[in-house]
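Field: sequence (string)
Field: structure_tokens (string)

Example rows 1 and 2, in order.
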Amino acid sequence: MSKAYDFLKGCRRIFVATLSDGPPSSKPFDAVMEYMGELYFTTAIDRRLVTHQPVQIIAEKDGSNDWIRVGGSVIEVFDVEAKLVMLESYPFLTERYGSGGYQHLALFKFREVKALLHTGNGVIELDS
């Protein structure tokens, strides 16, 4: 997943999209990490991410027209160590959630992931 993660690190704004009982739902978020070889992201607690699979994240590289679509099923992660790594990687999350932020942080991990990089030269499937 490193190639997808490397691309995502260079994106300022990332969006997560799900389907629901009504129209599709999407919202921006800005914290993604690779931990133990898997792709994680955090956003406000949103049960649609768990109940309405699959999920996609989409991001455009700053200063270019290259963009990525990462899709798959996700699971919510309650592992304190993984949450602490996310908080250490993104200090603004500690500011947002406080020193005990891991208790309030909703962390999701992709499973069965597929990443497609869209460039001016076409679409490239990245290793997952």
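Row 2 begins here:
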Amino acid sequence: MASKNKTHEITVKGIITPVEWDEEENVTAVLLEGDDEEPYYIENNAQGERLIDMVDAYVKVTGVARELGGETMLTVRTFSVEEAEDDSDFDESEEDEEWGDQGWEDEVEEGGR
């Protein structure tokens, strides 16, 4: 007897990552690497296909999740591009000043970070 697929609505944030390409190396499928460290494979519905053009974007997605073959599939209902949440004290302006045109080797010779 086959088990029923349980579905539930979720909202998750994370980064869009490519997982399939065609013969011309165009992205054809993506997943959301969730902040919860779970991969959510995006269904290619109308909203999901829009995410194909947003590889490397940090997004907030609301949709219906279901398990299929041990993977979590996500049918996207809505999404928005978000500013990445960063728990560290990293400041990009400090990186620009610190690394500048010197490059990695120069910084390592000076003792690194």
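free_text_note (row 2): Residues 30 and 52 are 6 Å apart (CA to CA).
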